[in-house]
Amino acid sequence: METPVVAIVGRPNVGKSTLFNRLVGKRLALVDDRPGVTRDRREGDASLLGLDFRVVDTAGYEEDDPQTLPGRMRQQTEAAVAGADVALFMVDARAGILPLDEEISRWLRAGDTPVVLVANKAEGRAGEQGLLEALALGFGDAVALSAEHGEGVADLFQALRPHLERPEGDEADETRAEDGPLKIAIVGRPNAGKSTLVNRIIGEDRMITGPEAGITRDSIAIEWSWEGRPVRLIDTAGMRKRANITDKLEKLSVSDAMRAVDFAEVVVLLLDATRGLEAQDLKIADHVLQEGRALIVALNKWDVAENASALFNGVRAALDEGLAQARGLPLLTVSAATGKGIDTLMKVGFEVRDAWSKRVPTGQLNRWFEGALERNPPPAPGGKRIKPRYVTQNNTRPPSFVMFGTRVDQLPESYRRYLVNGIRKELGFGTVPVRFVMRAPKNPFDP
Predict the structure, then answer these.
(1) Could you tell me which HAMAP family the record lists for this protein (predicted)?
(2) Which of 38, 109, 171, 437 has its CA 20 to 30 A from that of 69?
(3) pTM of the model
(4) Cβ contacts of residue 425 below 8 Å, gap of 6+?
(5) Residue 442 assigned as binding residue
(6) Nearest to 326 by CA among 271, 269, 367
(7) 40 annotated to bind ligand
């Protein structure tokens, strides 16, 4: 079967080579802040969450005479896009949409190659306006991405998947994301029992285990199935406090574990019940939530835990206090030694992924929104009314929402939390990370 091809296209210096390097897993493309560093088409074999394809890094698209160097670079880009199964059109969310972006979008719309719009450098508030401006290019919602930090790769996978997966016979119908393998990473401090748990789950001694902390160096993916449903288990190296990491190889392992979080849908933070919850566990949990992954906390070695009820309640209270943005996270008890609690862990894993992947119809979302405003009208700071107009879900995995209205950017953080909590409780998102931004019109005379 012929390998599908993805061409990355965009104006100079939007981050195309950085994304190329991340997809191929090697620093094959030269990356520099100066525009126009890439002059030739570079190709590499890429893999994204099990999706294999050939990726082409193109020169920045310039409008120049074909006989000039920029003109020849443009011809190379056009040839790469014509031969691709899908084009990744990359813009810079921080810089916003420039005239050359609009020119490239017109050229792409005139062609036959499907286009996935990617807004790079979208991390943080600085990229939010650019994401909204990108809607005007006519390719729908942009995939919010940080090629440098690896954020948004799950969304990129979902956008590419329909264009790259080859249908086979009766399976030609598009597969829903929730029907694919549950990508679940197991993370935690060294010696919490991660590899022992993986061995117990799959029923074989696949991972080397022992009393010494830090045996696992690499993140290892294992294909498996639970009750007939496909699962991709990712065991990772233990994450210790940065001050305790002196061995260079272990530094690489911790970095690898962080990358495993990027490629997971659901992350299980495994705690040692004989040691309870420590500050490092909360840091790992916060990192997982910041990356937008669904999180489950599991207390391992439950079969040998003392004062079990008090321990469970203490960990529950510490999690709710230390992770206020995700109160009520699933807290489960397991035993890698006996297998107790593993079926519950897998069941909850599939449930939280369903919530993480959920999209609410705009009509239902705004009916809830109107009710939330009636029950608790927004405040009027300085006597000026804030008028929320509507809200839309602009993404899933994690679920992301944008609220539009007059002066909504002046709403206090407490009111934003009120709306996010309502989304969680009343629209079925549970404890998965929910991103919620507020957008006021630029026109100061807008009533």
Answers:
(1) GTPase_Der (MF_00195)
(2) 109
(3) 0.59
(4) none
(5) no
(6) 269
(7) no
